[in-house]
């Protein structure tokens, strides 16, 4: 399988190079040239399989050029062995036709672990085989960074630098990033918000001398391998609710659009997904765009669901690429307009987007109320991001089963959860001493040269 850039000007790559390359050299994101389609019969045979077995079957056509089948199965087994739930991604019922997909049983308590634990295995395998080293840079609003540091800490072939917005992640998230003591992982607190962190990461990829000198790689959802691993739980959950014989809808708390785009890939692979619902907090650019066709980022406003405090949503470019029929020149033009403040999606593309996605926006008050009522009515303690999803989903419940993705554990956001419910969620025992561990924090200004200088200095040390 070949992967092509959304902007059409970079060379097509196989899976291994796509994974190691990160951002395409024309600034675009890699997407599979064609998506394999499973028959109803193929999907039906997934019923009753373990999470790992489904993962192997779904991802294999995308990665088969890079690994032997048994090697890949071993990587999957190692990736999910540390999860705290035998089902890996269990479904719990919230109400008639409403189900919650708990994606927070991995080592850092957020859905990011599903992809990051596997990518850690794949990077290690490929880099060992090549005898190569890379420098991973990542931007985080809290969860990607902790998952990446956990997945790559202590690996010889990798240095990891994570930019997070200073003062804008929860204390648990920050400590997950700043307390690991391994010399190859570095948490950099940038003066700014998540969009600044992501912009500097993309700047580093576009600085070719720096990129080539340090062997830059990315583990944000820039990296298609991240998106791919997230396709799997759409299949496991839909099949357990009756797919392929019954359609299912999904509501996805959304920021950078990677998770919901994984659902789009699942749909293109033949999974009968009726609607993909994009749920946003007050940073609602995606809801505004899907409603009006105008994509104009505003200022990021801090919220109680900080991981979704994003205005420039990286993977929306992939959805636009599909909506514009794979026209790379059109996407390059839109992204140029974005530098000048924003763009208007064409009527045809907007219609194509609306055939797949619907959206909703949730206020801070509604998020708190939803955490409170979900606990009272169902006994489920939601994190604020999952609550955004539940609130949007509730307005759309109908005959088709709805699955809302619970993207993080409530204990990552104890202040917001306690303020809403009076209950302070406890961290799992293995993290009980998180608040006693020493932190290593490096402050950095929102400036490309300053960030690159820190990376150069740390790599040389
Ligand atoms: C807890 C949580 N929920 C939702 C999201 C939004 O996911 P995505 O960026 O894939 O849209 C994030 C950030 O990625 C997150 O960390
Ligand atoms: N919410 C994310 C933002 C980065 O998203 P990614 O999926 O592109 O890595 C986070 O928690 O960091």
TrEMBL record:
Q: Which reaction does it catalyse?
A: O-phospho-L-homoserine + H2O = L-threonine + phosphate
Residues with PTM N6-(pyridoxal phosphate)lysine = 112
Q: Which NCBIfam families match?
A: thrC
Sorted alphabetically, the keyword list is: Amino-acid biosynthesis, Lyase, Pyridoxal phosphate, Threonine biosynthesis
Instruction: List its EC numbers.
Output: 4.2.3.1
Residues covered by the Threonine synthase N-terminal domain: 2-80
Descriptive protein name: Threonine synthase
Q: In which pathway does it act?
A: Amino-acid biosynthesis; L-threonine biosynthesis; L-threonine from L-aspartate: step 5/5
Q: Which InterPro entries match?
A: Ser/Thr_deHydtase_PyrdxlP-BS (IPR000634), Thr_synth_N (IPR029144), Thr_synth_N_sf (IPR037158), Thr_synthase-like (IPR004450), Threonine_Synthase (IPR051166), TrpB-like_PALP (IPR001926), TrpB-like_PALP_sf (IPR036052)
Q: Name one GO molecular function term.
A: pyridoxal phosphate binding
GO BP annotation list: threonine biosynthetic process
Determine the domain of life of the protein's source.
Bacteria
- Annotated organism of origin: Jannaschia seohaensis
